[in-house]
Amino acid sequence: MSRFHEFHSDKNGTIRCYRNFGRWSVVVQGYEASGNYLMSVWNSALRRVPKNASIKKILILDFGGGGNVNPLHRRFPKARVTAVEWDPVMVEIADQCRCYSSALRPRIIIDDATHALGEMTEKFDLIIFDAYIGNTMMSIRDSAFVTHLARVLEPDGYLLFNASDKPAALDLIKPLFSEHERWKYRFNHLGLFRHFGMGKAGDPLPEGYHSFHAVHEYLRRESLVDKKRQLMGEHGAYGLRWRHGPWWFEGYRADHEPKIQPFDHWRMVIWQPITRLDKPQGWYRSWIQMNARKTCFAEIAHPEKYWEAWSSHAQRHRRRWLKQEEFVGGDATLEEFVAAYRQCDKLRLLKEDFIKFLQRKAAAHGTRMRYLVARHHTTNEIRAGLAVLDIPEARQSVHIISFIQPDAEKRSVGFGLIDLWFKHGIDHHLRFLDFDLFWALGDPKGWKGYSNFKRQFGVRYICYPNPLIRFIPPHHG
């Protein structure tokens, strides 16, 4: 094809193609649909998606001249790309201009983006929105379009949205997505979105979810065993008061502002909001994080097929666990669990501390503690275990301690224990399984491995802002 060529389209009118510096620019109604500038836009935008993200399937809305295919494959070389384009002439142009090698040609769907999304059953790890006719954006005000976007994006996926010179369009995505980043690249406004609960502080929580740290019955049981801690607060913001040396402290973890009661001593009140990012009058933002930076939980939204929210890797190991016969899952007593835990080679320095922590939980919560284990089918020896605490008042079960021996680790037993936990939650009409701590920047590197294991079970993250503090003099509330 010559350096300049024109195509006629019933949908886009006259399309002009220019060859500049070895690359083709495709121009529709005076605006670039593919070319050097847009390639630089996408090269820059794709760097906002972590390179170690599990991007296996990519959806492009719309294809244009195919100029973003090469940047996508450079960033995620193993990904499979699907593109939606409503104008077959644009596909013909991309093929003739050789904007990509034949080996990289994506699967192309000729259809209107809204209709194509509505018909899709496949899910994608990364969705690129760039749907324009010239400078006119495809209408996204229809809530069905955004709903379809959310439906076809994998639970841990990313949505890259090019709003061109219309930054207000980014706000139309926010009702169903969490905005992780918004920026401007020369003339274009762009946004990076994810599902709620994928690591953004302030994301809303599912209706009915409450932090177990603020559940009255849970804290009452804790305070009855530990006489140094006193139950404080009121509905919506229960907490504990304790003494450390000459200092008194109160701690709350809830979005509801704690009601401060009069007391005879100076004390520091530590309020850890969950989704609130504001700072009410009288509170000061701590410059250090005194609590967990990040936790995660799974919701049992579909008990009949709970595993479908898991990663494909976790589902594969679950199937392997269900087929194997070397290990048998079941329950154990506290004494059996502790004896087996002591035999585990890991955490030698902290092992006794963890055991004491487990025993305190058992003393406080009794039969609400459950000890799920995997035993060798011939020796009956416990080779892996997961201790969880049921909090029926919040319809939650909380991960306390787990361990696994090397021989069991190679047989998908860790995944089997999580499967037992999900089944236990369903049998006891629980709704949330709280995996508790998840690694965040600044935490010990040793947490990373188990955190990566946890992320495979359809978890939702809570990223906590730094806590708010107040110093309260005697007798003041």
How would you portray this structure in words?
The protein is α+β, with helices and mostly antiparallel strands and 477 residues long. Among the domains are: 191 residues, 3-Layer(aba) Sandwich (Rossmann fold); 130 residues, Aminopeptidase. It has 12 helices and 26 strands. A 7-stranded mixed β-sheet has the order 7-6-5-8-11-13-12. Helix 3 links the parallel strand 6 and strand 7. Helix 6 crosses helix 9 and helix 8 runs antiparallel to helix 9. The radius of gyration is 27 Å and the shape is globular. It starts with a strand and ends in a 5-residue tail after the last strand. 35% of the residues are buried. The model has no long low-confidence stretch (mean pLDDT 91).
Fold topology:
Elements: E1 4-9, E2 13-20, E3 23-28, E4 31-34, H1 36-46, E5 57-61, H2 69-75, E6 80-85, H3 88-97, E7 107-110, H4 113-119, E8 124-129, E9 132-133, E10 136-137, H5 143-152, E11 153-162, E12 178-185, E13 188-194, H6 216-225, E14 230-234, E15 237-244, E16 247-253, E17 267-272, E18 284-285, E19 294-299, H7 312-323, E20 327-331, H8 334-342, H9 351-365, E21 369-376, E22 382-391, E23 396-404, H10 406-409, H11 413-427, E24 432-437, H12 448-454, E25 459-463, E26 468-472
Helix pairs in contact: 6-9, 7-11, 8-9
Strand order of the largest sheet: 7-6-5-8-11-13-12
User: Roughly how many Å apart are the termini?
Assistant: 80 Å
Rg calc: 27 Å
Q: Can you identify the CATH superfamily of the domain at 4-194?
A: Vaccinia Virus protein VP39
Q: What is the CATH top level name of the domain at 4-194?
A: Alpha Beta
Largest sheet: 7 strands, mixed
Number of helices: 12
The helix content, as a percent range, equals 10-25%
CATH fold descriptor of the domain at 4-194: Rossmann fold
What's the architecture of the domain at 4-194, going by CATH?
3-Layer(aba) Sandwich
Strand proportion, as a percent range, falls in 25-35%
Q: Provide the low-confidence segments as ranges.
A: none
Q: What is the residue-averaged pLDDT?
A: 91
**Global structural class:** alpha+beta
Shape: globular
Q: Care to count the β-strands?
A: 26
